[in-house]
Structures are given as C-alpha cells and as structure tokens.
Amino acid sequence: MRWNTDRPTTGWGRALRATSDVARPERAAQLDQALAPAVGNRRSYGDAALNDDGRVIDMTRLDRILSFDRATGEVEVEVGLTIGDLARVMAPQGWLPPVMPGTGFATIGGCIAMDVHGKNHHGAGSFGQHVTEITLIQASDRRRITPADTGIFAATVGGLGQTGIISRARLRLMPAKANIVTVTERRATGWDEHIALLDASQATYCVGWIDATATGHSLGRGILEEAETAAGLVPAPKASKKVPFDAPNFALSAPIVRAFNALYYRRVPEAGRTVVKPIQEFFFPLDRIHDWNRLYGKRGFHQFQCVVPVDQKDALREMLEAITRSGLASPLAVLKRMGPGRAGYMSFPMEGYTLAVDFPNRHAAVKLIERLEQMTVAAKGRLYLAKDSLATGDQIKAMYPDHALWADEAAKADPTGALQTDLTRRLDLRDMP
Ligand SMILES: Cc1cc2nc3c(=O)[nH]c(=O)nc-3n(C[C@H](O)[C@H](O)[C@H](O)COP(=O)(O)OP(=O)(O)OC[C@H]3O[C@@H](n4cnc5c(N)ncnc54)[C@H](O)[C@@H]3O)c2cc1C
C-alpha cells in the first residue's frame, strides 16, 4: 500500500484538524498489508475519522457492488461505496437502502461504524439492523460476522471502527416505489405544535426543520416534512453549486440568520403544500452545495446533536430556549422523533426526540454547547459521536450503558490499539493503559 505522508485532514466541521499518512487502496487484498483506522468520506463532523500523527486508510476506492439478488433485495458491497450511489443505482430497480443519513456522501463503512439513522428511524430503526453480514479485517484474522455473532457484531455496528477494518457488507434493501418522493410540508407555529405533529405523523419519512432564532410564542416554530416514495416523472434536479472560498465571519451573523430563517419559514404557505422531489433532493438536501462547510469560515463549526427520552421534551425545550437566547445558531437545525431501534453497543439512537443544531466555531458557541451537553446528561439523553467534538469521556461513558461491553470486544479485536482515532483517545473510550 502506498502512503501519502503528512496529509492535512479535517472532520466535516473543520474545527478539528489532523496530519496523517493516508493510503487509498484500490484492491481489497491490499488491506491485509497494514492495520490502521479505516475512514470513509470524513462526513463525521468532529474527530471520529481523524488520526493525528498516525495513519489512516481511505476506503473510498473500494466501492464495487459485488452481488445483488433481485428477488430478496440483498446486496453485497465493498464498503467504500457511498449510500448515495447505492440509492442511485438501486432506485430504478425498485429498491432503496432502508436507512439513509442526511448526506449521500457517507460510505457504507461509515454508515455501519456509526450505525446511522435516517428520517424513517421511528419505523425502520438504524442502519445496522439491516446488515446481515460484515467482512472484518483484524490484525491476524479476516472473518465474516453476522448478527448471530452477538458480541463482536454489536461492537462493530456503531463501533467507531475499533474492532477491525470493515471491507465488505451484505445489506437487506427495502422495496420502494422509488425514483421520486412526494413531500407534504406544513408549518408548525411553535414548540407544542411541532412536537404534536411529529408525534401524530404516520408517514414513512418525517423530519422537522426548526427556526432556532424564533423566540416567545414562536419558539420551536418550523416546517414539518412528511414523505413517501412514489413512481412518476422525475422533476429536473436543481443545479449543483459550490462554495468557492471560506466565507467571512459575518456571513452567518445573527441578523442574517434571523432574516434567512423568516424567509425559509414562509416559503411554505400557511395551508401547507405537497411537492414532488427527486429522491436525492429529499434525502440529501445539502449535497448539491459542494463544500457548504466553508460557509462557516476558516474556523469551521460544531454540530450539537442529542437525543432525549420521550418524557424529557421539556428539557429539550429548555435547550432550545438557551440556543435561541444565545443568537448563535445557524439555519441548520433539525428535530426528529426516534424509535428505539439500535444495533450496536455504542449506537446513538434511543426512543425520544433528537435535536441537531450547527454553530460557528466561536468561544461563546463552545461554552453554549458545553452547557447543552450538561443539560443532555441531566435529561438522561445521549450525544452523537458522529457529530461530537467537545464532550468529555465521563459524559459519554455515562450515556452509553454498554460502553464496557464494547471496550472489551474492541480490546480483544485490537489489543495494541492500532485502530484508535483522535475521538477514542480524546474521550479515553478504549480504556487503554
Ligand atoms: C450533511 C450531513 C448530514 C448528516 N446526516 C446524518 C443523519 O441524518 N443521520 C446520521 O446518523 N448521521 C448523519 N450524518 C453523519 C454521517 O452519516 C456519519 O458521520 C457517517 O459515519 C459518515 O460516513 P463517512 O463514510 O464519511 O465516515 P467517516 O466520517 O469517514 O468515518 C466515520 C467513522 O466510521 C469509521 N469507519 C469508516 N469506514 C470504516 C470501515 N470501512 N471500517 C471500519 N471503520 C470505518 C471511521 O473510523 C470513523 O470512526 C450526517 C453528516 C453530514 C455531513
């Protein structure tokens, strides 16, 4: 394997950085030559895919579809394949990945290692619940594991890449009348209505955009999107755009975000509306703006994402109040209802409500996020490791009750810690001496 030395890399938030030697193998057989953390397209916001002063193996060239059973929808892939490409190839054949995160650039390896969730988590559960087999490369072993291998499977799905390099996976796709999505958009005028609409939704896909600048009676206002796949004429996709340079600091200042959010809220008529979108546009709405993370300027940004149990919605409301008071939020703020589905010891989902908000990387925002993290702990909630860059190890261990089981499996699979990343070291997750 050829190593490109001293490559600067960042998480998607660009607030955390690393310098690493990076290999991009073209053949799976090359993976046997060295054990180092595997990474996908680095769509994790913080340091999950970083290994400062060390090596990483970029899996994105290993992206073949190896087999597909049209009758059952089972597909075997090399895990550098992106979820967006899998959807693009399979949708015309009447199948879709059963779970899709908000970006099509996530690789299947990244989806497994973070046990990602989609806009249908309340019905479909997490990504790992649809994985039937994983090929895992460890220091002295290449093995196939299935959900019947309970310990190692639960430690690998959502396992942050700490049990081995995932090279292949088998997944069960979901039948779908897919190449378009019908989306019903309606306004939620405030917090209580927003929560009530989420609770009452019977739609397969459901997500709320929140105006995180609205206060008073309008606190929690937003737009609820409910969607179903359908067959029909595909509307022309919107043109792709690129953010060509790091935006100046004022680009996301409070008055600009407030004005943008007010317009965005009113884009949906008071009575609501139903629109038809190409599948990529609904599932991966930000992907057509390449490098949109540069909008936050050179210092980058952080995303705070928590989930709290159903009976803690008041605690979530208090978090939103703290966010709106700060005037620091960006327009990217999302509220979803989650079901209980999770497949791994370190999987994020729990039954409840998840709130995700982006903040420019400034001192005041870091202080606010630290406070929101403490509020999450108090609400018996959880922070998402795909987004985190600021939590402490004690907080995370307390939120993930199966952490010790995961750490034991990781220690058996990788006794020397060769697969550690900046995230596992920052949070001391591996409990290595
Ligand atoms: C715009 C946007 C929207 C998002 N929306 C959602 C969402 O709705 N739901 C959600 O759950 N997540 C969401 N995410 C987060 C994203 O889905 C995850 O961070 C995902 O893991 C990214 O995949 P990746 O291929 O870029 O992985 P990376 O970020 O490169 O890596 C993630 C982790 O997986 C490990 N890993 C990657 N490949 C392998 C492999 N082959 N073997 C072993 N370990 C591996 C890495 O070591 C790292 O720990 C979103 C991210 C963005 C940028």
Tell me what the structure shows.
This protein is about 25% helix and about 25% strand. The chain has helices at about 85-90, 110-115, 120-125, 150-155, 190-200, 255-265, 280-285, 315-325, 365-380, 395-400, 405-415, 420-425; strands at about 5-10, 15-25, 40, 55-60, 65-70, 75-80, 95, 130-140, 140-145, 165-170, 175, 180-190, 205-210, 220-230, 240, 275-280, 290, 300-310, 335-340, 350-360, 380-385. The protein contains twelve helices and 21 strands. The two termini are about 30 Å apart. The strands form five sheets. The chain has an eight-stranded antiparallel β-sheet with strand order 16-12-14-13-19-20-18-21. The chain has a five-stranded antiparallel β-sheet with strand order 5-6-10-8-9. The protein has a domain at about 180-395: Alpha-Beta Plaits. The structure holds flavin-adenine dinucleotide. The site of flavin-adenine dinucleotide has 32 residues, from strand 3, helix 2 and strand 10.
Mean pLDDT level: 95
CATH top-level class of the domain at 180-396: Alpha Beta
Q: Determine Rg (CA atoms, Å).
A: 21 Å
Count of extended strands: 21
Order the strands across the largest sheet as they lie in space.
16-12-14-13-19-20-18-21
Oligomerization: single chain
What binds here, in terms of ligands, is: flavin-adenine dinucleotide
CATH architecture grouping of the domain at 180-396: 2-Layer Sandwich
Q: How far apart are the termini? A: 30 Å
How is the main sheet built? 8 strands, antiparallel
The helicity comes to: 10-25%
CATH topology of the domain at 180-396: Alpha-Beta Plaits
Q: Count every helix, treating DSSP H or I runs of 4 or more residues as helices.
A: 12
